[in-house]
Structures are given as structure tokens and as C-alpha cells.
Here is the input.
Amino acid sequence: MSDEFDRPEHDRFPSGSSGKTYGLMCTVDADAPAVEAKPEKSVQSWPAAFIRELLLFIVVVLVLSLIALYFDAPLEEPANALHPPNPAKAPWYFLGLQEMVGYDAFWGGIGIPGILAGLAMLAPYLERKKGGEGVWFHSSRILPNLIFITLFVTLGVLTVIGTLFRGQNWAFIVPW
Here is the structure.
């Protein structure tokens, strides 16, 4: 046994090993929890889940195709650069931004969107609380939830104003 320690290190350890050895330090005399070999009532995801998802996909495509056949899209005349529409409205998802630009060009187009984008990038670093995971509207997260809901509702209101309440020369109108 003593000659094992007298040999050089590269002879004692196989090539590619780090030279670290591990041993059992102690044992604990206690009952081990029962561990089952496999979970009960499990189903393979293939083909059960895949077939269901495929059928749902086919149904959704068929329903949307039928809706597209029976209802015309609300398209206007082809674009004409010589006679643009008044007002030239952005698509609905940009109307909130267009509405902000209507009030002030810098703050509506660069300032406020830039600040919001910067805050969105900083959000993971600013939020450090560990409580409330997995609970909707947990009391420890009331301020972040209120900020998000306020921004979401504001964007929705600006989009509705831009869609329904703007007329010639971007003037405020009542649609009814």
C-alpha cells in the first residue's frame, strides 16, 4: 500500500482526471423516503398532445378561412402619392404613438418612448423582491402592477382616440 503513494501522481490517476478523489464522510441512521420508480397516470406527449394540437390548428385555420371568405377586409382604394388621405393615419398599433406625436413631436416621438424603452430594459435590475412568485396581483407587487396597468390603459385610450376621434387635419371629432 505504501508503494501506491510513492508512485508519481500521473501513474496514480487515469489520464484526463483532475486528481480529485471523493469519499464517504459519514452515514445517517434514518428512514429513507419512499421513492417510486415512475409517476402514475402519465401520458406520452407524442402522439397524444401532438395530435390534439394538430387538430386544434386545423380547426382554427378552417374557421379563419371561412370567416375570410364571407367577410370582406375593410380595405380602401390603392395608395396614391398625389392625393394622400386626410388624415394619414398609422396602423392601429401605432396610433397611440401618432397621437402622442400630435401633442409634441419630441416628447411624443423620442422622449417618452425612449424613457419607456429604457425603463423596460432596466426592469430586471430594478425589481429585486422575492415575494409573490406565482400569485396574481400579490400585495408586495402593487406598485409595479399599478404602473403597468396605468401604461397599458393609457396606450389603449390613446389608440382609441386616434382611431375613432380624429378627423380632417387630425382635428378632434365625435364619431356619432
Q: What stands out?
A: Residues 104 and 172 are 16 Å apart (CA to CA). The two ends are 99 Å apart (CA to CA). The mean pLDDT is 82.
